[in-house]
Amino acid sequence: MLSWFRATDGRPFKTFLSKMSPENWAMFYAYILESSSVPREFYRGHTVDLKQRLADHNSGKCLHSSKFGPWKVKFYAAFETQQLAQSFEKYLITTGTAPNELSRCPHKRMI
């Protein structure tokens, strides 16, 4: 079954995984949070631990998002590298993309 999947560089996923050590299996996430208290207020970011990052936002540890909490995850995408996650976050921020607009994104693909 794994042979059906491919890494972003085109290698079969099974081969890709066999060349990685377990400590390098981390995923990087770009995400959009939506405020539960202020509908249509969004926060975009990236992280390696999405659950912990959401907890940080909801506990007020993040200065930029503390006044609109609590937050819920509206969208996230997983990437193989931090650079890809950061690039996608930058795309989300610079275009002002909201979650309902992602379905029309010309670069949308399964990752």
Textual characterization of the structure:
With 111 residues, the chain is an alpha+beta fold. The protein has a domain of 77 residues: GIY-YIG endonuclease, CATH 3.40.1440. It contains 3 helices and 3 strands. It has a 3-stranded antiparallel sheet. The N terminus and C terminus are likely disordered.
Gross morphology is globular
- Widest beta sheet: strand line-up: 2-1-3
Distance N to C terminus:
16 Å
Number of helical stretches of at least 4 residues: 3
- What CATH architecture of the domain at 28-104 do you see? 3-Layer(aba) Sandwich
Multimerization status: single chain
Rg, rounded, reads 16 Å
Summed over residues and divided by their number, the pLDDT gives a mean of 78
Structural class: alpha+beta
Helical residues, percent: 25-40%
**Low-pLDDT runs:** 1-5, 106-111
User: What is the fold named in CATH at topology level of the domain at 28-104?
Assistant: GIY-YIG endonuclease
How many strands, which pairing sense, and closed or not: the largest β-sheet? 3 strands, antiparallel
Element-level helix/strand string: HEEHEH
